[in-house]
Structure formats: C-alpha cells, structure tokens
Design the sequence.
C-alpha cells in the first residue's frame, strides 16, 4: 500500500469513477482539515495530506477555520484512509508482481518498464544512488551515461510509489555532498548552493575505489546552468518525506543547510523589477539555446513549487525562520505576477491584440509595452474558445506565446495555477489534442520554430530543427506530469487516453527519449533508446492512475491566502 493522501480540494472535484480503484466521487475534500495537526518542529505536517501551511498560518501560527466536510467527504476519506494507511508505503511492482494492487492484470509494458528501470540503476560503493540517463549502447554516449538530477525525478517517484525509498534517500544525500564542492568554470566560482546537472561514478581498477564526478555546467554542451536541479532536489526531499512519513532526512542539519543554500541563490536581492527568476538560456529540461532565457515558465513554475516545498520542510529555528519570511513574501508576489501576466486565453489574447503602446505610469494597461504586431500568427488559430495557459515568458516588450508542457503541469501541481486556471489548462489540452498530444504524448514546446526564426533563436541548431527534440518534439517523460495534473483536476480520462497512445509504441520502439513530427509519429532523429525517464515517467503515470492517492507525493493543495484578487479571463468562469 502506498503513501499518503490525495489532494483533491483544488478544483472541487476529483472524478475517479473510472479509475481502477473506483474510488467513487470525491468532492471538495480539504485534507488539511481532516487530520488534527500536532505541533512539530518541521513545517511539513505528516498528519496533513499533501497540503501545506497557508501563508497566513505561518504569520499568525493559527490554522484557518474551514467548513466541516460533508458526510460524503467523510465516506470518501475513509476509503482513502483505507487505501492509504499512512505511513507505510506499499510494495508492488510490475517487475516483482504481475498483478496490480487491485488484482487487475498488469499491462505487459509495465513489467518491461520495471525491468528496464532496474537495469538503469547506478551504484556507488554498493548502494544504489540514481539511474543512468539512457542505457543505449548503440549510440555515442555523450553524457547519457550520467545520473541527471532532473532525469532522476520520475525514477525516484516510481521507487517511492513502489515502496522503495532507499535509493531516493541515497540520491538526496549524495547530491548534497556534491553541492558542497567548490565549483569553478575557468576562473569563475559558482554559487555555493548550485546543485549539479548530473554526476557519474568513476571506478579506479587499480585501487578498486569509486569516486563521484559531478557536472555543474562546466562540461555540459553550451555550458548551460542547471537552474532547475536545486528546485528538483527540494521537490524530491518533500516527495520522499511525504511518501515515507520519515521526517528525519529533511530534519538533518545538512539537508536544512542544503535547502538554505539553494534558497539563498534564488532569493537574493538584485536589480530586478519582477519577482520572477532571471535565467540564461538552456537552464532547464530544454538545455540548449531555444529562446528560453529571461523569465521562462519552466523555471518560474519550478521555483514556485520549490519555495512551497521548502516552506514545509524548513525547520522553524533561527536560521530557518529568516527564510520562511522571505519565501512567504516572494510567493505572494510571484503568484500574483504569474497569474496576472503570464495567463492567456481568448479574452486576454483579444485584449493584447487591441493594446495601446507607449503607456507611462502606474495606470498603464500594457505594462510591458508589448507591441500587438509581435503576436505570432499561429496563436489566433490555436487559442480555443474554452481554455487557456501560462505563456512561455514575459519581459519588457516580449511575450513568448509558446506552450510549455512542463511549466503548465507544474503550475497545476504546485497550485501556482488557480483551480479555474488549472481547469482551463486541461480544457486547452483537450481541445488542442492533435497539436499537443497527437500520436505520442507530449509536446515539450508548441509550436516549433522554423526558417529564419529557427536560425536566430537556436543559432542554427541541427538537433533542434522544426518538430524535433526540444523544438516541438514529443517527450514520453511528460506523461507523469500530465497524469498528475489530470488527477488533480479530476480528469483522469485524459491521462488514460494519453497513456494508451504511449503504451502502443514505447516497448516496440525501445523506450525512445523523444519523437519527432507534428503528430509525434517518428522516433526522434537523434533520440536515445532505453531513455530512463521515458520508462520511469510511464510507470509513474500508470501507478498514479491506478492509485490516485499517490498524487499527494507530487502535488500541493491550493493556498487559500494566494487566491487571486483579479478575474479577467472568460474561460475561468466556464
Ligand atoms: C537532454 C535533455 C535534458 C536531459 C538530458 C539527459 O539534454 O534536454 O533535459 O536532462 O538529455 O537525458
């Protein structure tokens, strides 16, 4: 049996009637109100589900009263309680056990995936510490023989959901040790908190000794900065704590310090006029030049998620408290900024289309002086009547209207998106299925950039040609994010459809890294086979769909104190 509870209060419904566990319908459950909360040193409350202390609670120390859950809610809660049995996680894998938890026969792809995932394990001095990026021996390795922090996330979730937390703990502790290395690129010393992009285990046959070798961007193609690594690390620490109920890892002084170092980097004061985090190109999953510099949604959503996770994990001691206050302020500003300026739907698009420019002073409507002529042609057809999403980037006179899958899914999971916005994002995915899912889930970015724009934006990158790789390619790893977002918004049937598409091909194609083409029909030009996060992403998606209570490991409930004060989108009210 698996981890904690399901976070379902967000959009008011989690429709699970058609899931395997047939959890009936669960509505309006605020799990934070279901458990009593004993005082404890960490902010993460084991007794609460995947919720969090609200910002106002942090400042007042008092929980906010909430209405008593309905009897239906209580019934459902009992069911979840029965399913969940905190804190002992379940052990069931397609590898060890061909039957699923509910006695339904496991899909053959699941058994194959577990086998492949276990083959990808990397050991350090006898202990599993991560998974290799790809086990494809037929291709030139480049750095695919390393354990990437971001790639390990779905592997970690798969192991956690399968009741095997040790490897996750080992990974968290090993990467923490790497963080404390002195990091230099040429003569430039990197920030203390920087987490590596990847590491590998070196074996010395003479001394028979193993050492770790980390890459903080100094060997990476293009010398890109792994801004997302630290955020994923905090996310994983919370996922581990949530899933196992073991708070001792997060409470370790070295983990607390590691978190504070990451936070120091991203909360430091600078010249910025926005609460978003300024980044160089290639700083996240899209780790090549793709015009993702400035304030990309991928990083802002992860930043928001990491801040909220840190708030749960930081000890309220002298050092921790200082950060709690800074995080709280930043979260307020960040959520307002993102929800107001990154959000687009038909109404907002029409407003931008009619924007006046050169507005001065506080009364300006077009705050960033976006020139309507810069609106790309494709967006007028792409924007459905119903639905919306967070655009890729906002900065002076620049809006990147491209769709980024990871950022939008993380926005749903972290509750950066309001419940209405989350619903609108799912509506968009449904109405633009062909474009965003096609024949293989899911497009990392939509649409592709071509011709002159491709030359300028990518620097003529032959790997990122149109509808390939990061430039409109389809990445199976994104399945777990979509599935989690579907469960959170009460639309598991969308995930089921996407999983079926993937299932029809992944084994046959040997688990490629990505697919190419407008519909994702072709195995990617340079895609690695046996790409671990394609394998793990599929497993996590399957496990979540089978047992939605896993959602609590990866999602956070909405913080009522960050409810938006403005409502300007027609699609929100549908
Ligand atoms: C590619 C991906 C990156 C991933 C790496 C290893 O560079 O863009 O996100 O971490 O491969 O799989």
Sequence:
């Amino acid at each position: 049996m698996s981890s904690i509870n399901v976070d379902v209060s967000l959009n008011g419904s989690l429709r699970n009637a058609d899931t395997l566990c047939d959890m009936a319908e669960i509505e309006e459950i605020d799990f934070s109100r279901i458990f009593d909360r004993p005082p404890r040193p960490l902010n993460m409350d084991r007794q609460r589900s995947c919720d969090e202390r609200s910002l106002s609670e942090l400042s007042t120390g008092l929980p906010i009263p909430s209405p008593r859950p309905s009897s239906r809610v209580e019934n459902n809660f009992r069911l979840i309680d029965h399913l969940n049995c905190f804190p002992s996680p379940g052990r069931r894998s397609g590898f060890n056990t061909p039957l699923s938890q509910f006695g339904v026969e496991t899909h053959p792809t699941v058994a194959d995936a577990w086998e492949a995932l276990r083959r990808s394990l990397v050991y350090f001095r006898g202990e599993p510490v991560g998974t290799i990026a790809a086990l494809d021996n037929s291709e030139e390795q480049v750095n695919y023989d390393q354990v990437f922090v971001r790639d390990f996330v779905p592997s970690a979730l798969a192991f956690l959901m399968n009741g095997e937390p040790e490897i996750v703990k080992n990974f968290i502790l090993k990467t923490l040790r790497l963080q404390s290395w002195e990091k230099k690129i040429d003569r430039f010393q990197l920030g203390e908190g920087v987490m590596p992009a990847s590491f590998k285990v070196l074996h010395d046959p003479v001394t028979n000794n193993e050492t770790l070798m980390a890459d903080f961007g100094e060997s990476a193609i293009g010398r890109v900065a792994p801004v997302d690594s630290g955020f994923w690390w905090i996310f994983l620490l919370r996922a581990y704590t949530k899933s196992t109920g073991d708070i001792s890892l997060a409470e370790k002084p070295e983990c607390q310090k590691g978190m504070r170092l990451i936070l120091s980097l991203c909360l430091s004061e600078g010249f910025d006029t926005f609460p978003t985090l300024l980044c160089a190109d290639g700083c996240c999953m899209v780790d090549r030049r793709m015009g993702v510099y400035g304030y990309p949604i991928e990083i802002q959503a992860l930043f928001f998620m990491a801040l909220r996770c840190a708030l749960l994990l930081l000890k309220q001691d002298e050092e921790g408290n200082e950060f709690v206050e800074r995080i709280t302020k930043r979260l307020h500003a960040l959520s307002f900024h993102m929800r107001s300026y990154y959000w687009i739907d038909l109404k907002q698009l029409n407003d931008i289309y009619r924007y006046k420019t050169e507005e001065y002073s506080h009364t300006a409507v077009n705050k960033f002086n976006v020139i309507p002529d810069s609106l790309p042609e494709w967006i007028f057809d792409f924007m459905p009547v119903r639905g919306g999403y967070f655009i890729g980037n906002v900065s002076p006179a620049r809006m990147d209207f491209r769709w980024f899958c990871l950022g939008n899914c993380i926005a749903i999971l972290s509750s950066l998106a309001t419940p209405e916005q989350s619903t609108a994002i799912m509506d968009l995915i449904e109405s633009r299925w062909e474009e965003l899912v096609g024949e293989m889930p899911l497009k990392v970015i939509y649409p592709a950039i071509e011709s002159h724009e491709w030359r300028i934006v990518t620097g003529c990158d032959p790997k990122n040609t149109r509808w390939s790789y990061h430039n409109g390619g389809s990445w199976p790893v994104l399945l777990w994010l979509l599935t989690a977002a579907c469960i959170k918004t009460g639309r598991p049937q969308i995930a089921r459809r996407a999983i079926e598409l993937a299932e029809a091909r992944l084994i046959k194609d040997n688990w490629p890294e990505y697919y190419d083409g407008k519909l994702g029909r072709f195995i990617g030009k340079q895609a690695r086979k046996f790409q671990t996060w394609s394998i793990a992403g599929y497993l996590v998606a399957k496990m979540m769909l089978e047992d939605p209570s896993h959602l609590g490991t990866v999602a956070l409930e909405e913080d009522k104190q960050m409810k938006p004060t403005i409502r300007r989108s027609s699609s929100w009210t549908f």
